Automatic annotation (TrEMBL):
Its EC number is 3.1.3.18. Keywords: Carbohydrate metabolism, Hydrolase, Magnesium, Metal-binding. The active site is at residue 9. It is an enzyme of class 3 (hydrolase). This is Phosphoglycolate phosphatase. Belongs to the HAD-like hydrolase superfamily. CbbY/CbbZ/Gph/YieH family. SUPFAM superfamilies: HAD-like. Transmembrane segments: none annotated. The keyword Magnesium applies. Its cofactor is Mg(2+). It comes from Belnapia arida.
Length: 218
C-alpha cells in the first residue's frame, strides 16, 4: 500500500527561523564593518538558499559577493541555528496528527543540509522525517521540481500520494513542475502573490492537518 507523503518546506513553514538568521547576518555585517538589518529586510531575503541570502545581504550594504563571507556566515549560523528558532504554534500538533494517521513526512528546503540537520536535531524533530532534502543535497534545488522529486523518492513516496507545503513561490513552482499539489503556508514569510498556482492557501497551522488529511483521502 502506498502511503501519503507530506513534503514540508522548513523556514517560514515549519519553523520561525528569522530571529537566528537575522542575528547571524548582523554578526556578519559587524565583522565587515557594516550596519545590521531590520527584521523585514531579512525576511524578504529568505527562500533561495544560503548563497543568495548572503549575496543579497552583501549587496544591500554595497559589498560584492565574497566566498569567505559566505563560509563565515554558514559556519556561524549552523553553530547557532536554534538559539531563538522555534516551531510555529500548532505545527507540533500537525506533525503528531500526520504521524498518527500513518503519513510519511519529509523536508524539502533550500537551507543547506548541515544547517537543516543541526536545526532539526536541536528542536528534537529530526526523527519524524523519512527524508531530508537540503539545498545542497541534490544537483538542483527549488524551484526545480527535481529537488522535490528526489526528496520524495528518498522518502519512499509517489507523486500520486504526495502534497507539498511551503510559504514561497519556489515551493509552488517546484510542486507544479512535479505535478504535486501545493498547500501555501499563509502564516509564513512569503507574500500573497507567491501563492499563485497553489492548490489552496492555508491561513494558520491549525487548519493544515484537516486540509492534508482531506488530500490524503483523495
Amino acid at each position: 500500500m502506498t502511503v501519503s507523503v507530506a513534503l514540508f518546506d522548513l523556514d517560514g513553514t515549519l519553523v520561525d527561523s528569522v530571529p537566528d538568521i537575522h542575528a547571524a547576518l548582523d554578526r556578519l555585517m559587524a565583522r565587515l564593518g557594516r550596519p545590521g538589518f531590520a527584521r523585514a529586510e531579512v525576511t524578504a531575503m529568505i527562500g533561495d538558499g544560503v548563497r543568495v541570502l548572503v549575496e543579497r545581504a552583501l549587496a544591500a550594504r554595497g559589498l560584492a559577493f565574497d566566498q569567505a563571507a559566505l563560509e563565515g556566515f554558514s559556519a556561524d549560523y549552523t553553530a547557532r541555528a536554534a538559539e531563538e528558532t522555534a516551531l510555529f504554534p500548532g505545527i507540533a500538533e500537525v506533525l503528531a496528527g500526520l504521524e498518527a494517521a500513518g503519513w510519511r513526512m519529509a523536508i524539502c528546503t533550500n537551507k543547506p543540509a548541515r544547517a537543516t540537520a543541526a536545526l532539526l536535531g536541536a528542536l528534537g524533530i529530526g526523527g519524524r522525517f523519512a527524508a531530508v532534502g537540503g539545498g545542497d543535497s541534490f544537483p538542483v534545488r527549488k524551484p526545480d521540481p527535481g529537488h522535490l522529486l528526489a526528496t520524495l523518492r528518498a522518502a519512499g513516496g509517489e507523486v500520486s500520494r504526495a502534497v507539498m507545503i511551503g510559504d514561497h513561490r519556489n515551493d509552488v513552482l517546484a510542486a507544479r513542475g512535479a505535478e504535486v499539489p501545493c498547500l501555501f503556508a499563509g502564516w509564513g514569510y512569503g507574500t500573497p502573490e507567491m501563492a499563485e498556482g497553489a492548490a489552496a492557501v492555508i491561513g494558520r497551522p491549525e487548519a493544515l492537518l484537516p486540509a492534508l488529511l482531506g488530500h490524503g483521502r483523495g
